[in-house]
Specification:
The protein is built from 10 helices and 18 strands. The chain is of the alpha/beta class. The chain has 3 domains: 6-36, no CATH class; 44-164, Diphthamide synthesis DPH1/DPH2 domain 2 (Rossmann fold, 3-Layer(aba) Sandwich); 170-308, Rossmann fold, CATH 3.40.50. One of its GO terms (biological process) is protein histidyl modification to diphthamide.
């Protein structure tokens, strides 16, 4: 796992954790962590040659990123390229949050730290990634989608310009945002128990869904897969609370789509607008973060402005409403309600079960005659002991 397993460490009574292998460098919640990435071989000469082929202009503003297993060789690569490229910037791997505030133009994200001195900031810079194609590179490309990316794979020794159509990926993610707007029941998947702030973002998502008039269920299912999530048919959409790398789950094979906390906030919080910057770290959504957006004042359900879904074409309320589940009916007179309506107001899951034609085995208490226990069949289904076998 790329995340530190603090739960297993606490079961063993550990006071610190040594994490071996690749890591997403998400801050841990309690225990101090020492990361041991390992050192994969890197041909710095071939990497520098690929860099010169990709960036023939010596005045190019380029930020060099690397996988953690190649961080040990970045110093040697910097010595070869810095004399030729005066505007090149090498990122530094930071395993823990720095206490001092960031300087103007300094970027601290995903365990990387670098200072951008380009006139237009990060938008005027290109990104050069040293490492194989994977979740880390995808996370970087979605977050810094305004920057052109190139990469060098040390295993093959080839450099290339990344041809992944980020806009197409963003269109897919924005389509999931529209699906989240249509959803009535949302399942919150707890994908991490060790990243700092996961409890706060769970509470934030519950509050956000309550204000948006949606039901939410919190589920701890470990690593999500289509078979697990297919058991919750009453859930319209899932939101995965995980680290920045694992939150971008490809849910094309899932029965219900899976979105990130940022996508759910885009769908439920009308005060947050799409600016082109994609956030994969859920801590950026919490109060006190630079990207936090407060919820607007609540609007009564009668005054909510309707909107048309771009997927189903049906009407829906887009403004925040006072908690619909706790609202009292406008009249205090007694009224007769059927069981289905009562279940629908209590729980969408119960109303979903009520609408199904088969709800499981019925007990039929008092209707089945009492009889003594008898011995059943023995053997396997293809040939029970009391059945004859045909000779072929």
């Amino acid at each position: 796992s790329c995340c530190v397993d603090e739960v297993a460490a606490e079961h063993a009574g550990a006071e610190a954790v040594l994490h071996y292998g690749p890591a997403c460098l998400s801050p841990s919640r309690k225990l101090p962590v020492l990361h041991i990435f390992g050192q994969q071989p890197l041909d710095t000469g071939r990497c520098a040659e690929a860099f010169r082929e990709l960036y023939p202009d010596r005045q190019s503003h380029v930020v060099v990123l690397s996988d953690v297993v190649y961080a040990h060789a970045m110093g040697e690569l910097e010595q070869q390229l810095c004399p030729e490229y005066p505007n090149i910037v090498f990122s530094r791997v930071v395993c823990e949050e720095l206490p001092d505030p960031a300087l103007p133009g300094e970027v601290r994200q995903f365990g990387r730290q670098f200072l951008v001195e380009a006139p237009g900031g990060l938008q005027d810079c290109a990104m050069f990634y040293v490492g194989a194609e994977g979740l880390a590179l995808t996370n970087f490309m979605l977050t810094w989608n305004c920057c052109p990316f190139s990469s060098f794979d040390p295993a093959t020794g080839c450099g290339r310009r990344e041809t992944l159509n980020v806009n197409r990926v963003l269109m897919r993610r924005l389509y999931l945002v529209e699906r989240a707007r249509d959803a009535r029941v949302v399942g919150i998947l707890v994908g991490t128990l060790g990243v700092a702030g996961y409890l706060a973002v769970l509470q934030h998502l519950r509050e956000l869904l309550r204000w948006a008039g949606k039901r939410s269920y919190t589920l701890a299912v470990g690593k999500p897969n289509p078979a697990k999530l297919a058991n919750f048919l009453e859930v319209d959409i899932f939101v995965l609370v995980a680290c920045a790398q694992n939150s971008l789950l490809d849910s094309s094979e899932f029965y219900r789509p899976v979105v990130t906390p940022y996508e759910l906030e885009l769908a439920c919080n009308p005060a947050r607008e799409w600016t082109g910057n994609y956030l994969t770290d859920f801590r950026d959504l919490l109060p006190g973060a630079c990207a936090h957006v407060e919820l607007p004042p609540a609007v009564p359900a009668a005054e909510a402005v309707p909107d048309v879904s771009l997927i189903t074409g049906e009407m829906r309320a887009t403004h925040l409403c006072d908690s619909p589940s706790t609202q009292l009916p406008p009249s205090t007179a007694l009224a007769c309600r059927d069981q289905t309506q009562a279940l629908a107001e209590i729980s969408p899951a119960a109303s979903f079960l009520e609408s199904r034609s088969w709800r499981g085995l019925e007990q039929q208490l008092g209707q089945t005659p009492v009889s003594k226990a008898v011995q059943g069949r023995r053997g396997i289904a293809i040939a029970y002991e009391d059945e004859g076998c045909e000779q072929l």
